[in-house]
Each structure stands twice: as structure tokens, then as C-alpha cells.
From TrEMBL:
Source species of the chain: Mycobacterium simiae (Mycobacterium habana)
SUPFAM superfamilies: Creatininase (SSF102215)
InterPro entries per UniProt: Creatininase-like_sf, Creatininase/forma_Hydrolase, MftE
Keywords, ordered alphabetically: Hydrolase, Metal-binding, Zinc
The protein's name: Mycofactocin biosynthesis peptidyl-dipeptidase MftE
Gene: mftE
Cofactor: Zn(2+)
Any Pfam family hit: Creatininase
Amino acid sequence: MNSSYHRRVPVLGELGSVTSRQVSISTSTSIMIPLGSTEQHGPHLPLDTDTRIATSVTRAVAQRLDWLVAPAIAYGASGEHQSFPGTISIGTEALATLLIEYGRSATCWAQRLVFVNGHGGNIAALIRAVSLLRSEGRDAGWCPCSSAAGDAHAGHAETSVLLHVAPADVLTDRLLAGNQAPLAELLPLMRRGGVAAVSETGVLGDPTTATAAEGRRIFTEMVDDCVHRVARWAPGSDGMLR
């Protein structure tokens, strides 16, 4: 076998861009899977915002820890956004089943796998799926794209991060403040009528205050937090890395 082939074997990289043979002889056989959604994010952000954030965070973490990055899972449990055009939700049951079968298949060859979650609505499915995978003896975990930045949806935090990772796709001439009440106050209405019951635009928070600099800070916080969780590898009873 010639040496040029060996030079093409990745130490880290995108799982979808390598061959089965390259994976089999790579030193990196642990994978990170971005998990997002396809759902409304107000009049100014793309439908794949959660997936973009999860993918960007995953790539940054994988580069620091020498893991492979799998193609993103771009559909999740987004029923609360179903009143808005463009939203495609597969629901908690289907998502949990998808993650379970994904994990069972991937751990036939991967040493470890971690789902990097960019959408809060996916958490119930993640807990169910990863807890089951771990009970079957599979080395799986999940971590959130977490930050101390506080608004709930398509507001200051998410808009800032998109201005950092994909500025050309933020429609800055359509920024409108949404319902800024605490999420705990909104949940009773949202449980009955979804996000549309509390926000005509689908925005929970204030995107008008977003900046790329703030997005860089939030993004770095997300990456550092995920790096710490994955490097420490201490899954809780719910499968989330602590």
C-alpha cells in the first residue's frame, strides 16, 4: 500500500467525507453527532438555526479532542413551533427511536459517541435514548450547547451566535423584539397552544440587542463547556455528560 494513501487517513475530520477503510485504521473512532431541528426562528433566522449552532459547536469541540464529526441530525421534537410554516417535527417518540437505533449501529464500531444538542425540545428523547443505550452497555452520552445567556428562542443569544457563525444568513432588517416574559410564565399557555400562543412572530426574547461579538463570547462558552463535559466523561443517570 503506497504512502500517499496513508497521508490521506484523517486523524480527525468529518465522518461523512471519509471511507470505511479510513475509519477502520484511524486513531479516532469516537464520534460526535450534532442534533438540531428544522423549525421557525422568527422572521430573521433560518429554520436550521439549532442545527447550525450544534454543528459549529461540535466541529470546534472535535478539533480540540480528536473526535470524528458525524453528519447532523437535522430533525427533532419541535411540536411547539408547528403553527409556523417551515417547521418539521418528528416528535419525541420518533426521535428517541431514531437515537436508540443510531447508537446501537454506531457503537458496533465506534468506541464512544456523544450527541451534541442544539434544541431544548430534544431533551426528553435524548434522556430516554441515551439512558437505554447506556443500560445496554454502550458508551454513549449527550451534552447541551449551553450558555448563561438567557432568552428562550430566536432572541438575543441565538441571534448573536448566528451573527458569529453565519452572519450572511441573519436578516438584520427584520429584527423584532418578541415576548420577553420569563419562560416559566409562558409555559402554561405554550403547553396548550405552542409558541404561537405567546408570540405572533415566534420570537421569545429580544434579537435587536444581538451582536457578533456577543455571539463569539456565547459560542466560546458553549464550546468550552462541551469540551469539559466530553473530556471528563461523567454521564449522569440521564446520560448527560457532567
